[in-house]
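Sequence and structure are kept together here, with a separate record for every protein. A complete record is shown below as an example:
=====
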Amino acid sequence: MNENIGDIVLEKAPKNAKYTSPDIQKDILNIFANQVRTKIRKEIGDAKFCILVDEARDTSNKEQMAIVLRFVDINALTAAAEKEVSIWLFFSKLNSICNLFNVSPKRHAELLSAQKAEVAHIIAIGERDTGRGCNQIGNLLRPGKTRWSSNFDSICNMIDMYSSVITVLENMVYDGSSNSIRGEASGLLIAMKSFDFIFILRLMQKIMGLTNLLCRALQEKSLDILNAMDYVSTTKTLFHTLREEGFAILLSYVKEVCTKFDIEIPQMEAPYKSATGRSCQQNDSITVEHHYRFDVFTAAIDFQVEELNSRFKDEAVELLKLSCALEPKENFKLFNVDHIYQLAEKFYSLDFDTQDLHHLRMQLEHYKIDIVGHERFQNLSTISELCRRLIEINKSGSYNLIDS
């Protein structure tokens, strides 16, 4: 399928190699396996993962083993947020700001000093309370590629330290050790003291705050499926509310911040001019408010909802919820005969014919009394432990349709 390989390699090859030797075929398979493993490792990054192994017989009665790798990859929601160009540019600037301070102990110390002075000033004028745990000095965190929570933490820290960062950048513009440092500080200062930066900073704090609970739940070592699916539902609902009612509130808050830091607020009714500046690409019917409401605010939220809908389709969510009825944790707290029957009927129709479904329901009625209440089946946490215990006490044969 690769034209270069076809033209350069295959056409000029002596055509006497058939690669049918078992040793050669094993080498080729090993190369394929290494390529697949490398790609999977890159996708996972440092995220948590688990491996599910299942075994079944095919139509020829041969054992077949399926291995499923479950993980939240580096493009769950961060990449979705960055589909909007202005948001991608924002994160690029945020990375640059964090790098500027974190690579230099001197700048880092200046930032901490500016924070202390800022906190002391706010306390002195009575705008902040004192007490244990209050007014702690933080650090700028670089948003990570594999942790949505790290992006949220980075955004929150930038909001808390915004004034201090501005102060240090202003000092660097005038007292920087080189032209490149002064120039970089000047560029970042201009970016930070813009309406666009403040708007997206606050917008992403809201969006990431809404998704943070779900992302943390998905990356827990011991995943609670029901809770995670509940978080999917509540996150979608909160996004809907934010989309319908949140723009005016966000805009009002952003204007307050801009006024406080003497940042120019654009006229919302004025025609919006795109960054290209080309007259042929301008649309005078689009106002500044329209741009921020629909091209940034609504687009960013819609990208998130689209990603959630893609990752968690209704059928997949239903399958996960019904599957929880099989788990023995908390002494079979989630056991439900109807849910298990629905699971087999709807999602495993090829494995259970009509007759099997009749037998399954009868087995479940016995299982509910015999196994769920059996002292040897208490305090189990996983389905694999349950299956082993069924075999140990010779119950797997009696409940073959459940155990399968």
Q: What stands out?
A: The first strand starts at residue 49 and ends at 57. The two ends are 41 Å apart (CA to CA). The mean pLDDT is 82. Residues 78-312 form one domain.
